[in-house]
Amino acid sequence: MRSSRKPSSPSRPAAAVHRVIKAYDVRGLVGEELDEGFVADVGAAFARLVRDGATQIAVGYDMRESSPALAAAFAEGVNAQGLDVVRIGLASTDQLYFASGLMDCPGAMFTASHNPAAYNGIKLCRAGAKPVGKDTGLSVIAEEVIAGVPGHDGARGSVSDRDVLADYGEFLRSLVSLPGLRPMKVAVDAGNGMAGHTTPAVLGPVESITLAPLFFELDGTFPNHEANPLEPANLVDLQNHVLATGADIGLAFDGDADRCFVVDENGHPVSPSAVTALVAARELGREIGATVIHNLITSRAVPELVTERGGTPVRSRVGHSYIKGLMADTGAIFGGEHSAHYYFRDFWGADSGMLAALHVLAALGEQDRPLSELMADYQRYEASGEINFTVAEAQACVDDVLKAFGARINALDHLDGVTVDLGDGAWFNLRMSNTEPLLRLNVEARTTEEVDEIVGRVSATVAARGPARAEAAP
């Protein structure tokens, strides 16, 4: 007797699938690597992955031209496997995490974050915003897409709509004490990304804040600058806007608005490590002894301050899957990364740049000093930022660098690449990329002169092995 089960989707070449389904998310060039058929298969495979514990999946998308159609195709794949879809429409990534936590259901966010307009992708999570990465489901999804996702012989799922934007804003404000703050003018560069959608909903109702918006128009072609504030060139417009408007603070968000970068009243960028230290101090103020996660290339000022404030610092590898895993394992109250991702236990352990921004605004508004003076309390060292070397023999270059520093080395550890402690607050980390012929260097020391000396020695040693190109990481 023939089965009534619907046929599997067509198989796909493994190399093509693995180019798009990466370690942390799904991402590729629209039309070449990522199309509606492929996304429908991913939706079906994701539905099969979470089916045992879920009946519905929340789906949101950013302002990219391709996002609505791709989100609809994903929903079709989910429905074909018998699960319902709740569409939250235009959203930031942390707004999607909020929906996942609020409805206690898995979620899918269509975005390519800070990548150029030609790209798109999907960030997936389980119920309660728990991340889905290579080891927690993406490998299974990739295998099913390659083999052909099995069909489903049950009833189709449904589609409904739910607007969670106002609830998201109200929830974030409930996590930070905002009454009684002094009046502040806040310049915000949305970069034509999703912060143009979420900032009015979150900051608009705060009486002490006057917004000075920049590039709030949603436009996935990014006509003004790339929505990647980690690249210094993309902060210039905000820096000028802060000075032109006399703002007390500037905030810049990436395309999906899950990362937040801060500029002081003088137009100077504030280190994400300093922001991590400030937020950690605030969170420890309400729960003394709590655990705070920091990745290994944030400033040493972070664990120092956490310890001084009675907390327990825990060091992590670089990458949100490691941070989120440690957040869950340790019950940490907060976690921060050098890349301006900030994670909160009260936000289901997920990251929210907007919530970090609220903490900085509250800290600024609770006292009378300008932001530059406030943040000086959390800035103890000088740093190089991340520098990438394009090399042919990465491990050999690392070995050469260790030999070059020789007797200056106090200690080594290999949590993620190699971290070299040179004493008196000076250290550097060298990590090899898993996907590219790159070495990533981060240096910190007490003075810029010492940072420059260490960077120069590493650069010269790497170059001595053969042609190498160094550039600041975007």
TrEMBL record:
GO terms for biological process: carbohydrate metabolic process. Residues 386-458 form the Alpha-D-phosphohexomutase C-terminal domain. Residues 20-136, 167-267, 277-381 form the Alpha-D-phosphohexomutase alpha/beta/alpha domain. Belongs to the phosphohexose mutase family. It comes from Mycolicibacterium flavescens. InterPro entries: A-D-PHexomutase_a/b/a-I, A-D-PHexomutase_a/b/a-I/II/III, A-D-PHexomutase_a/b/a-II, A-D-PHexomutase_a/b/a-III, A-D-PHexomutase_C, A-D-PHexomutase_C_sf, Alpha-D-phosphohexomutase_SF. It holds the Pfam family PGM_PMM_IV. One of its GO terms (molecular function) is metal ion binding. This is Phosphomannomutase/phosphoglucomutase. Its cofactor is Mg(2+). PANTHER family: PHOSPHOMANNOMUTASE. Keywords: Isomerase, Magnesium, Metal-binding, Phosphoprotein. The keyword Cytoplasm does not apply.
